[in-house]
Each structure stands twice: as structure tokens, then as C-alpha cells.
Amino acid sequence: MCYLSLPQELIEGTFIERKNRFMALVDLAGREVAAHVPSTGRMRELLVPGAIVYLKPFSGVTRRTKFTLLLVKHNGILVSIDSLLPNRLFHHIIKKGALPEFNEFTLLRREFPYRDGRIDFGLGSDDHYQCLVEVKSVTLVEKGEARFPDAPSKRGTRHLKELSLARNEGFRAAVIFIVQREDGVYFQPNDICDPAFGQALRTAKNNGVEVYALSCKVNTQEIKLKGHIPVKL
Asked: Of 80, 113, 129, which residue is a domain's last?
């Protein structure tokens, strides 16, 4: 099974409040500390007062906070909220050959330049890149339904339109939704929160962009790939 190890020195605390998009206050054994929140998502159902959280400490580093909030306990399970971790996990998955849909490719490049921007990954073989992949972090699950985004995402919609363009230009194109928790039974776009994203995803699918959703199991030592879950559009 494919997995990524998490920092060994995680510290348990109790969530107090979110001061802004990037900073939260956490109680560590009676001491109030500021922690960086590594996601711009709202996560209102996760970051509630009294929630058990796990922080990664930083020492000797010049930064506004000396901790980063990585995990939240919600309904008895751990949820990873690090929005950069899914890209690292996907990179690891491809290197390990753990996603058969992409095993034909031998080249892997992060931040692949495309038009006036960049796509998360370019995949290819024989010195030629043939497939573009965007990876999205999913933390919202309600009654088994994993949803993205949890806040309006013009950037996410733009990425889907770029994948559609790439498909029309002859590239293979895909978007991968990585659910950073184990209770997602299926995935669908969050049309109530961001109908434009949902429409862009359906249009991309109709244009030949592949859509996948992967579920993960999280503990304080690692995040482990569980496998595919159905996508409902």
C-alpha cells in the first residue's frame, strides 16, 4: 500500500479559534500558541472550538508562527488539512506505480508549464510529455459524500478550463481529487458552494478530461492511499 510518513514530532492540542485564513490559536497544555493553517479552505465543520488537533513544531526558523496545524480529529477520525500534501502523495503514487491508469508514463514533471500558467504535473515518455494532471485536496465529507471545493474557487475553475483546452490540443488530461480522510464513500462537486466549478468539471469530463477521486486513511504517523471512490457528476 502506498503511503507518506508524517512528521514524527507532532504535538496534540485543542483548537481555540481561527484568526484568519492562515493562522489559528491552539491550546497546548494550557499554553495558547499561534499555528499556521496550511490551507485556504474554510473547513468550518473541522476547525471548531474544542477540536483535537496535531501540530508540527518548528525551531530556529524565522517565521510568524512556530507551529503548523496538520491534522484535525473529527467524528472519531483524523483529517489531514495540508493542501500541499496531496501533490506530494500523487508524486509518490506515480513513482511507486500505484495508480495503474498512469503506469504507461516514465516521465514526471511538477509545475508543468502550459500556456501562460502551470499545471500540477506533466506525465510522459520518450522525452515527450503527453498527459497533464491537476491534483485537488478534499477535506469536506458529509454523510459519506466528499465534496470540493468548500469555498468558491475561481482558480480551480480556471484549471479545469485549461485541462479542457489541453485535451482539445491532443493531450491526455486528468483531475485527481485526493480525499484526505477515510470516510469519503463517493465524490461529487460542491455545487451549492461553487456552481461554476461544478459546471466546469462536467464540461471538462464531457471534453474527455478524466476525473478520479482517491480516498486516504490518516493517522499520526502516515497518510495511506486506500483507493478509488466513485465520482458522481
From this structure: 80
Task: Give Cα separations from 71 to 42, 61, 77, 88 (angstroms).
Answer: 15, 21, 10, 16
Return the axis-axis angle of helices 154-168 and 195-206, rounded to nearest 10°: 10
**Domain residue limits at 55:** 3-80
Distance, in Å, from the CA atom of 160 to the CA atom of 194, rounded to the nearest integer, reads 13
Q: What is the pTM of this model?
A: 0.96
Q: How high does pLDDT run on average in the chain?
A: 96
Q: Which of 80, 112, 143 is the last residue of a domain?
A: 80
Q: Does residue 233 belong to any structural domain of this protein?
A: no
pLDDT of residue 54: 98
CA 225 – CA 214 distance, rounded (Å): 7
As given in the structure block, the three cell numbers for residue 127 are 522525452
